[in-house]
């Protein structure tokens, strides 16, 4: 009776070992060179130790597969980063090919009201590396609607103003001295940093458009407009 139980136990262990080995080999496409050696080592073990040995082989192979998957994921991530870097480089090249061309979409509107609007071009050193030498300068465009009045303001940058379109009257106040000028298309006037400036569009049909070159003096490439009474 005891011998029969021993035989039955051994048969059960052998069947379990065969099932584990079969399952493990299916998961690993019948095992690679290294997994085959692991299985052969298990075959040299006593029969009652083989199932546990085969299970350990299976766990080792599973860990190796996970490690390979992580490496492959890292490689794909690295390839993605390289592609992103190449795209950025290509964008920079595209910018550098036409660094001196700016359309209306290149400007950001910072002020808008019933009287008109003020749009500012982003810093030159952000547009192209070729323009880093003029990073202290900015460009803005003021548009005053027909028969409108632009409230007094001043900025912390020296400003050279070119009248691109229309006509009007501009007044500057510097060191307590007030000066007024009649301006029209093609005229140029200067507004020093800190000088209060206000203007009026005297045309009843056309906008008054003034292009401004600002030389920043506080923070390179940065400036602010301050609005207040003249």
TrEMBL record:
Segments of this protein annotated with the region Disordered: 58-98
Keyword Signal: yes
InterPro entries noted in UniProt: Cupin_1 (IPR006045), RmlC-like_jellyroll (IPR014710), RmlC_Cupin_sf (IPR011051), Seed_Storage-Functional (IPR050253)
Signal peptide span: 1-23
Name of the protein in its database record: Globulin 1
Feature: compositional bias, Basic and acidic residues: 58-78
Compositionally biased region (Acidic residues): 81-90
Organism: Zea perennis (Perennial teosinte)
Domain (Cupin type-1) ranges: 105-229
Pfam families for this protein: Cupin_1
UniProt keyword annotations, A-Z: Signal
């Amino acid at each position: 009776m005891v011998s029969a139980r021993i035989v039955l136990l051994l048969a059960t262990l052998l069947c379990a070992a065969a099932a584990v080995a079969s399952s493990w080999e299916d998961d690993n496409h019948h095992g690679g060179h290294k997994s085959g050696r692991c299985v052969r080592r298990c075959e040299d073990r006593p029969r009652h130790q083989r199932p546990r040995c085969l299970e350990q082989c299976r766990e080792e192979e599973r860990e190796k597969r996970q490690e390979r998957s992580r490496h492959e994921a890292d490689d794909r991530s690295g390839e993605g980063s390289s592609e992103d870097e190449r795209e950025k480089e290509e964008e920079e090249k595209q910018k550098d090919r036409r660094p001196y061309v700016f359309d209306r979409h290149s400007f950001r509107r910072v002020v808008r009201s019933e009287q008109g609007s003020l749009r500012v071009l982003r810093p030159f050193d952000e547009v192209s590396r070729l323009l880093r030498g003029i990073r202290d300068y900015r460009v803005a465009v003021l548009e005053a609607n027909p028969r409108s009045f632009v409230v007094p303001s001043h900025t912390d940058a020296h400003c050279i103003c070119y009248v691109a379109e229309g006509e009007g009257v501009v007044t500057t106040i510097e060191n307590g001295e007030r000066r007024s000028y009649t301006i029209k298309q093609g005229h140029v006037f200067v507004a020093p940093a800190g000088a209060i400036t206000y203007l009026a569009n005297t045309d009843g049909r056309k906008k008054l458009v003034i292009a401004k070159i600002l030389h920043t003096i506080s923070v390179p490439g940065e400036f602010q407009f301050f609005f207040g009474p003249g």
